[in-house]
Design goal:
The chain is mainly α and 259 residues long. It has a two-stranded antiparallel sheet with strand order 1-2. It is globular and about 70 Å long. It is 69% helix and 2% strand.
Length: 259
């Protein structure tokens, strides 16, 4: 009886610390690659692309070429939409407008919103146009959320079938699937970065790795910094029974992101 209890205890411990087999990792990688090709093609050629896509594609290419976050498209759109006021202008007045022949002078987009992650992506614009690069990266970020969720569940001993079913629920939820369509926007990368930061907190990553995850989150922009900071501070407060040094580090990382 004692021997059985010990063996049962060992099995329970192994189940909670489940590691994926080599075969399962290969299958997950193959599915990820196939879906990435499909979603990237759909994202580039079938999603509706307009002003924001042109701005951020141009921004990526300019950073890649010159290192400066300049956008002529943003300058022109901002001028015609807010300075000239074409959005609220009567049709007759709009028809009488005479638009200048010269291009609008480019502006520093980071004066409006700060997205340092564009510098991380910029070398890829040497390989392909900005719109293609961002279309592939956006699809990869969305798929990575599902993969992280799958690995997170499997590590906790959740069966493969239930883990796949949960990931399918994420996939078919309109908040995930529909948001892949439309404009390319930097804040979409924050969903993956925030999820990664949440895993770093819950998995009790080392302070160094947690700091790295927080820096990655901060690269997503000022809104990402605020939300990521609130996540770190809130986690340190809610789970107050853990060691004080760890909680202080989490709260300090959160404060650094917010400030």
């Amino acid at each position: 009886m004692i021997g059985r209890k010990k063996s049962a205890g060992k099995k329970k411990k192994l189940k909670s610390g489940h590691t994926l087999s080599k075969k399962e990792k290969i299958i997950v990688a193959a599915v990820f690659a196939a879906l990435l090709i499909f979603l990237s093609y759909f994202n580039i050629y079938y999603s509706h692309r307009m002003g924001d896509t042109s701005i951020f594609s141009e921004l990526l290419e300019n950073i890649s070429a010159t290192g400066a976050p300049l956008s002529q498209n943003h300058a022109a759109l901002y001028d015609y939409m807010f300075e000239t006021g074409v959005l609220m202008m009567p049709v007759e007045q709009y028809e009488a407008l005479v638009f200048p022949a010269e291009f609008q002078a480019p502006v520093n987009y980071f004066e409006f919103h700060f997205y340092p992650i564009w510098y991380v992506f910029s070398p890829l614009a040497w390989i392909a146009p900005g719109e293609i690069v961002l279309g592939v990266l956006e699809a990869a970020a969305f798929l990575a959320i599902v993969c992280l969720a799958y690995f997170f569940l499997r590590k906790r001993g959740v069966s493969c079938l239930i883990s796949v079913a949960f990931c399918l629920l994420i996939t078919f939820y309109p908040g995930w699937s529909d948001s892949l369509m439309g404009q390319i926007y930097p804040d979409r990368f924050f969903m993956f970065l925030a999820f990664l930061l949440g895993i770093a907190l819950s998995e009790e990553w080392s302070n160094r790795n947690l700091a790295f995850a927080a820096v990655l989150c901060a690269l997503g922009g000022e809104r990402a910094m605020l939300i990521g900071g609130a996540l770190c501070i809130g986690y340190a407060i809610l789970y107050w029974k853990r060691p004080i040094k760890r909680r202080l580090f989490e709260a300090g990382a959160g404060a650094a992101l917010v400030l």
